[in-house]
Amino acid sequence: MSDIKINVNYLTRVEGHGNIVVEVKDGKLEICRLEIVESPRFFEGFLRGRSIFEAPHITSRICGICACGHTLASIQAAEDALGIKPTEQTTLLRKLLLHYEELDSHILHIYLLVAPDLVGVPSFVPLIKSHPEVVRRALRMKRLCNELCDILVGRHVHPISAVVGGFTKLPSHNDLEEMHKRLIELRKDMETTVELFTNLTFPEFERETEYVALVNDEEEYPLLYGDIGSTDGYRVSKYEYKTVTNEFIVPYASAKRTKWHRDSYAVGALARFNLNHEKLHPKAKEAANTLNLRPKCINPYLNTVAQIVECVHCVEDAIRIIETLWQKGINYDEIVVPDLNQNGNLPQRAGEGVGAVEVPRGLLIHHYEIDERGVFKNANCVIPTNQNTHNIELDMIKLVPEIINQSQEEIKLALEMLVRAYDPCISCSVHMIEFNFK
Amino acid sequence: MSKPKVAFFDFACCEGCQLQVANIGELLINVFDIIQVVEFREVMSEKWNGEFDVAFVEGSITDEHAVERVKKIRERSKILVALGSCATIGGVNGMKNSFQLEEVGKYVYGEFYKFFPTIHTKAVHQVVKVDYFINGCPIYIPEFVAVLKAILQGIPYYVPEYPVCVECKLNENVCMYDRGLTCMGPVTKAGCNSWCINNGNVCYGCRGLTINPNIEGFKEVLKQFNIPEDFLIKKIEMYNKCKELDQK
Q: CA-to-CA distance for A359 and A66, rounded, in angstroms?
């Protein structure tokens, strides 16, 4: 048995800085870990003393890819603390924004970050020559998602008009029409995407684990609201998130890890699919069928396939939301600009609030505590990637012995692809590390 | 003539400005036609060991390791561009500088804070020479394209010295002050086409203060809008805290 030494210094095509370190001596796996080496930015530290009305603007800056997700979790936590109940129109628009976020992020991951591995190239750049129509489609879809966000909230990185209390700007009738038109365009490209990935092969690998995602009793696929549920049959309210996350530290990584009923758990598109597949739009179910994705799927590489299925769902459900808004008509009296709430237009009180939202990479939690002036006393966030890190490492530990007879390069690629499959967002995972309330 | 070799690097940031570049869609193919992107870790696995004609640096410098890394990038680059607020002015990361570093470390990491050594947040030009600045959180794509063109032609790019208000007036927005709200527009560098105000929100000052901002006068005005003193100073410091390191 030969020795293997893999050291991927700065994993590419992921968000943030992480390393993979694997050492095999005399055929025995000695070291196998995912190191997080991102520089901390101390977001929860500097939120203290600031106004809660600034929270969505600031916490959006935790991550450029899931900026809208952080904004929505932040707004939910802030409104919960302040005692603000969003209107039906606001909730619909937030659901629409979350769909755009899932689409934008998933398309980036599916096409630009994962697809190059499946065809054996280091990035999308060589594909410009070899598969120009695929690259053009990917960039067109990506741009379209961005334009949808531009229309709804000003921009995708970092949304402007989504604020505590509602929106600073509401879509005009023309805006609704324009978004509807583009979603119909996107539908065609989605169909081609499903076709494309039906013909691509993902690595075969399975490991039983606990999958965790929001669940609720409504008919809709839960993304914006719900309790925290697991494939092991547990369900708790979002206020009890700490009984789920049970965070712990390992000495070689600057990001905390989590476990619930097993040694690790996984969040993200595959977890949502495993828990809530029966609530997907019929077209998304059909796509899952075509792509041969069936619950409960325990191959982590297929998280990307679950993302494709979710994209189909998001396009269809976004179209439904816009048609609903169209019928009801937009009430422009609901426009709100909180600034620092110096005019007292929004309720304000001392309190604590939790936001739990399904963002592209999985369950995101923001937890805030404020005084009667709305000033931050404490802030805490639990990031999807933190919840996945330990699960990824346990996958790696099972995977390496299974492929140990392959070449070092092949093992390295299999590990990189495994980590990428989870679509890790390392900047997020490091910038938000928990501390103890009270 | 061979295409200029261009690389993208990131330090402490959200990587949203690089994402803005990736977000230009099919135009990206045209851009890749005139430049050779040799390193862009967020979306490419390719690596390059030689010199860079142009290096874009996103993020602020927040630890000693980053200081060394950015110095090495500077040595290898003919032109270095600071990309986005974190790089040009320190950005939101600068808010950390209002706290004792040890205290903020302990708050976030508890007893493990010593594993995460940190220094006062710095903008890139506070560590190495910067040739071009692209402001904003995030960057404004039309400005990115304008700066890229200037770089490729070898001519300077001038960031507007007038405030956001100038562009805001041209866009015929109702002034936030007339709506009983406050706005960082009067003391913030233009160049974003008053992006936030066009979308109904106030300006948060992400592009940095104008060359000669009347901060005292500005504070006086803000005071008239019922904003407590501590909120008011924090409002100005959200993006601009690192500016005080310039004067040292």
A: 7
ipTM metric: 0.94
Least CB–CB distance from A169: residue in B66, B199, B231: B199
| Pairing mode, strands A227-230 and A210-215 | antiparallel
Is residue A378 scored above 70 in pLDDT? yes
Q: Is the pLDDT of residue A427 over 60?
A: no
Asked if B93 and A158 come within 8 Å (Cβ–Cβ), the reply is: no
Q: How far apart are CA A117 and CA B63, in angstroms?
A: 33
DSSP strand pairing (B5-10 vs A376-382):
unpaired
Contacting B residues, span 205-244, partner chain A, CB-CB under 8 Å: 225-228, 230-231, 234-235, 238
Instruction: Say which range, A429-438, B171-180, B238-247, has the weakest mean pLDDT.
Output: A429-438
Contact B185, B203 (CB under 8 A): yes
Query: Phi/psi class of residue A202: alpha, beta or left (left: φ > 0; alpha: ψ in -120 to 50)?
Result: beta
Q: How far is CA A62 from CA A44, A71, B45, in A?
A: 10, 10, 24
**In degrees, to the nearest 5, what angle opens at C-alpha A198 toward C-alphas A222 and A301?**
60
Within a 13 Å sphere around the CA of B205, how many CA atoms are in the beta-carbon half? 27
Nearest-CB residue to B14 (from A46, A62, A339): A62
Dig out the tokens for A319 from the structure: 């179209």
Q: Give B175's contacts in chain A (Cβ within 8 Å).
A: none
Q: What is the pLDDT of residues A52-61, one digit of tens each?
A: 999 999 999 9
Sign of CA dihedral A46, A48, A53, A56: positive
Q: Which of A87-101, A208-222, B131-145, B212-226 has the lowest mean pLDDT?
A: B212-226
Query: In B, which residues are within 8 Å of A339 by CB distance?
Result: 176, 181-182, 202
pLDDT tens across A311-352, in order? 999 999 999 999 999 999 999 999 999 999 988 899 999 999
Q: Across the interface, do A161 and B204 touch by the CB < 8 Å criterion? A: no
Peptide bond into B138 cis (omega under 30): yes
Answer whether A366's CB lies under 8 Å from A79's CB.
Answer: no
